[in-house]
Design a protein that fits this description.
Keywords: Aminotransferase, Pyridoxal phosphate, Transferase
CATH superfamily of the largest domain: Type I PLP-dependent aspartate aminotransferase-like (Major domain)
CATH topology of the largest domain: Aspartate Aminotransferase, domain 2
Order of helices and strands: HHEHEHEHEHEEEEEHEEHHEEHHHEH
CATH class of the largest domain: Alpha Beta
Number of domains: 2
GO molecular function, one term: pyridoxal phosphate binding
Shape: globular
Family: Belongs to the DegT/DnrJ/EryC1 family.
CATH architecture of the largest domain: 3-Layer(aba) Sandwich
Number of helices: 13
Strand content: 5-15%
Largest sheet: 7 strands, mixed
Radius of gyration: 21 Å
Helix content: 25-40%
Pfam families: DegT_DnrJ_EryC1
InterPro entries: DegT/StrS_aminotransferase, PyrdxlP-dep_Trfase, PyrdxlP-dep_Trfase_major, PyrdxlP-dep_Trfase_small
Length: 378
């Protein structure tokens, strides 16, 4: 591929176009059977655990925290090496966000740091599958259990990943997924909440639809009439339309191939950059089969920005993932200080994400690696 190489791009084929076109002529554009079908299709990738599909990955986080009863007076433990939504969704519900540092090798939440962050007010420990790789979920489960807290896995990067043979979606009390255009599968915008708890699943489903209660057996005034519905707890309209759910089901049929191709690209980067002393390639957890969403290379701090600008000038769409969440002014204004999670901050200063998407060719990867080598060769 010549010219500008994007950092990420969706993979849409004729089967997706046909599925969406067909959905546009169905009687239901929203709140129809395609929603339940997509949720059922997702269960094949989440260990059979049910999901609630919503309008975005951020909506999934908001819905999951709401289902968990997160609110004022509670604390939620979050790693800072993530998109700000992981923390913001809890803060919007009135909880205090407590940032805990990440593992130096993986960039995922460090169980020891999470343990140190616990208090009697901790209600949720939220892990992030950075770049597609999970944290030590068994260790984090033990940490959450000791605190009497729920374990949440922000799996926006990692549908298709398994940890010790168990798929994402089966590792935590609540798991959130994202189907944004650049993710491992897309519904253009969209997300889902998966839960191993029927009660949490039910709470998420209600929050996604204004908190409406339609079952007369659960209503306070069921004799009002056949049209009657009640709101027992406040929710929002986070419903994902049928037309986008149809796209999601179509994409899921090719997810295994997407995961395999992303693994090939990631391995090709590893091999091509192995001899570049200044480049640290991603750690590959021994206990995980990773559906790679990002290729997060690390370079010396003083080289990261000039390398970024060098690659961008050559038409390579690199990115940095992520500014530590508490560096954002909205958290700085609440009193969060730089320096509190030194490992995550070092990651940020060193990290550069090279292009990774299914349509990337081997020649594209080689072109990127040639440019990286040339930069460090001087």
């Amino acid at each position: 591929m010549s010219g500008v190489l994007p950092y990420a791009r969706q993979e849409i084929d004729a089967s997706d176009v046909e599925a969406v076109s067909s959905a546009l002529t169905d009687p239901f554009l929203s709140t129809g059977p395609a929603v339940a079908r997509f949720e059922s299709d997702l269960a094949a990738w989440t260990g059979g655990h049910p999901s609630v599909v919503v309008t975005s990955g951020t909506a999934a986080l908001h819905t999951a925290y709401a289902a968990a009863g997160v609110g004022p007076g509670q604390q939620v433990v979050v790693p800072p090496l993530t998109f700000v939504a992981t923390a913001a969704a809890a803060a919007l519900l009135g909880a205090e966000v407590v940032f805990a540092d990440v593992d130096e090798a993986t960039g995922c939440l460090d169980p020891a740091a999470a343990e140190a962050a616990l208090t009697e007010r901790t209600s949720v420990v939220a892990s992030v599958d950075y770049a597609g790789a999970p944290a030590d979920m068994d260790a984090l489960r033990a940490v959450a259990d000791r605190a009497g807290a729920l374990l949440l896995e922000d799996a926006a990067h990692s549908i298709g990943t398994t940890w010790r043979g168990r798929p994402v979606g089966s590792l935590a009390d609540l798991t959130t997924l994202s189907f944004f255009a650049t993710k491992n599968l897309t519904t253009a915008e969209g997300g889902a909440v998966v839960s191993t708890s029927p009660d949490l699943h039910r709470a998420a489903a209600r929050f996604r639809n204004h908190g409406l209660v339609r079952d007369p057996a659960e209503q306070r005034w069921p004799d009002e009439g056949p049209w009657h519905q009640e709101v027992h707890s406040l929710g929002l309209n986070y419903r994902l339309p049928d037309v986008l759910c149809t796209l999601g089901s179509s994409q899921l049929r090719r997810l295994a191939g997407f995961v395999a191709r992303r693994a090939e690209i990631s391995a090709r980067y590893d091999a091509a950059l192995a001899e570049v002393a200044e480049v640290r390639t991603p750690t590959r957890p021994a206990d995980a089969e990773v559906a790679w969403h990002l290729y997060p290379a690390r370079v010396p701090e003083d080289a990261r920005r000039p390398l970024f600008e060098h690659l961008r000038a050559a038409g390579i769409g690199v990115q940095v993932n992520y500014v530590p969440a508490y560096w954002h002014p909205v958290f700085a204004d609440l009193g969060y200080q730089r320096g509190q999670c030194p490992v995550a901050e070092r990651w940020y200063r060193q990290e550069i994400s090279l292009p990774l998407f299914v349509g990337l060719t081997d020649d594209d990867v080689d072109r990127v690696c040639d440019l990286v080598r040339a930069y460090f060769a001087g």
